[in-house]
Specification:
The chain is α/β, with parallel strands linked by helices. The protein has helices spanning about 30-40, 60-70, 90-95, 115-125, 140-160, 180-190, 200-205, 210-225, 230-250, 270-275, 290-300, 405-410, 425-435, and strands at about 10-15, 45-50, 75-80, 100-105, 130-135, 165-170, 190-195, 225, 255-260, 280-285, 305-315, 320-325, 340-345, 350-355, 360-370, 375-385, 395-400, 420-425, 440-445. Helix content is about 35%, strand content about 25%. Strand 15 and strand 16 form a beta hairpin. About 50% of the residues are buried.
């Protein structure tokens, strides 16, 4: 995906802590090298590791390492205890570079590594510093997975603080849950909201020369399986896409919420599909909170996201159908040959991208405002093959929990009807992200 360079990318600082007097301190240089090698093979090119010049042994070295991490703009710091160490060393480091901490203790009866990390955990908790605790050998796979997920959440936290979510038009009337709580959004999670006037936008799209998108329309038709939308609808959709892409660049937007229902239905769907493939998620119906959820998942995975309504269960297989009208990125389909560019439902005009979702493990999230901030809920299941049971991008998800329990849980917890879905099990990094941002987090086991 030729998308935003920040999508899914993590900058991690690593260092080793020790007190020179303690057993195991002499292993600090070797452990630092092992830690670097361990992370070097993680993330499939999505991780950049910044190794401290030396171990942290005293306040001066803690300050130096903190300054180095700050200069590298790391998202998180992994601190491995070679031996017992003074807890204030990490505090001195964080004064220079205040980022979430991966606190890694290693086994060893006389090293005091675990004791030191327990002391540090107390201090970090009292000071409300985001952190996770690991206890294992440096070469063990389990802590590496947890460290990677925590660091990814920390990276998303930093990126959200600089993110801007555009709102084209307004939210749809009659959907209170999608209302953006702008101050809470900025305070807790980071993004700020910027408006895009619908009338001005459509005038701009109309000024895009038809001839300038004719070649793109011809190429696009050759890449999909079927085209049932008219030529005029295709050209108009690419004019809208061109205008929206320009505005995204001009305003520095990370995501967009479009108030599409009903007057922009079939006009912005293709733009959402194409921008999603470029790392800029677009939500429907003016749902700022949905755009936020899509942005989180995009940054966690580096991939396009399903934007859906929870529609109807299929009791016989304990599955639920999720879908919107057809604005998903083409890579969310099993194959591009299965994509149809056709008129949008209800309006029977314009153009949307119709296909069934590809199978695989999926995490779905719903984000709603509360009187005190934000609530995020996550579901995990297995997307299975489905027919075009709803004209859009139907996602058929089979769950471990009974579908009745899921529906009751949604009702009892006061959740909404928009669910954003990404492939993979993202429950732990989402929980880490929620904890880092003081966002209420719910998940159904």
């Amino acid at each position: 995906m030729a998308g935003n360079k920040e999508n899914g990318h993590v900058r991690l600082g690593i260092t080793v802590l020790c007190n020179p007097l303690e057993v195991g301190a002499h292993q600090a240089p070797e452990l630092l090298q092992q830690l670097e090698q361990l992370f070097a093979g993680e993330g499939m090119g999505r991780l950049t590791v910044f190794r401290s010049p030396a171990a942290v042994t005293d306040p001066a070295s803690a300050v130096n390492v903190g300054k180095y991490f700050y200069d590298q703009r790391v998202d998180a710091a992994c601190v491995l205890a070679a031996s017992w160490f003074e807890d204030y060393l990490v505090l001195d480091l964080l004064e220079e570079c205040d980022v979430p901490v991966i606190a890694w203790a290693r086994p060893g009866m006389e090293t005091g590594s675990l004791c030191g990390m327990q002391q540090l955990g107390f201090v970090l908790r009292q000071l409300n510093k985001p952190h996770c605790f690991l206890f294992d050998h440096v070469c063990a796979p389990a802590p590496l997975k947890q460290a990677w997920e925590f660091a990814t959440a920390a990276a998303v936290r930093r990126q959200l603080r600089r993110a801007r979510i555009g709102i084209l038009g307004r939210q749809i009337q009659g959907m209170m849950e999608i209302t953006g709580h702008e101050l809470a959004l900025k305070k807790l999670l980071g993004p700020r909201v910027t408006g895009i006037d619908t009338h001005v936008f459509l005038e701009r799209a109309g000024r895009v020369p038809s001839a300038s998108v004719a070649g793109q329309w011809k190429e696009l038709k050759s890449e999909v399986g079927q085209v049932t939308a008219g030529e005029e609808a295709g050209v108009e959709s690419l004019q809208v896409y061109t205008a929206l892409k320009e505005i995204v660049a001009e305003l520095g937007l990370s995501a967009v919420a479009v108030g599409c229902y009903p007057h922009l239905m079939g006009k912005v769907c293709l733009a959402a599909s194409l921008l999603g493939e470029q790392g800029v998620p677009v939500s429907c119906e003016g749902d700022i909170n949905g755009a936020l959820g899509m942005l989180m998942l995009t940054r966690l995975t580096g991939c396009p996201i399903h934007n859906t309504d929870l529609l109807d269960p299929i009791p016989a297989e304990n599955s639920i159908i999720f879908s919107h009208c057809g604005s998903g990125g083409f890579s969310l389909a099993a194959n591009r040959s299965e994509v149809t560019l056709g008129p949008v439902r209800l309006m029977n005009c314009g153009l949307c991208c119709l296909f069934t979702a590809r199978p695989g493990a999926v995490t779905l999230i719903n984000i709603v405002p509360t009187l005190g901030g934000y609530r995020m809920a996550a579901l995990f299941g297995e997307a299975i093959r489905t027919d075009m049971v709803f004209p859009g991008n139907p996602l058929r998800v089979q769950f471990h929990s009974d579908y009745r329990e899921i529906l009751s849980w949604i009702a009892e917890r006061g959740l909404g009807h928009h669910w954003m879905a990404a492939y993979g099990d993202l429950r732990r990094p989402l929980g880490d992200l929620a904890a880092m941002t003081d966002c209420e987090y719910l998940t159904l086991a």
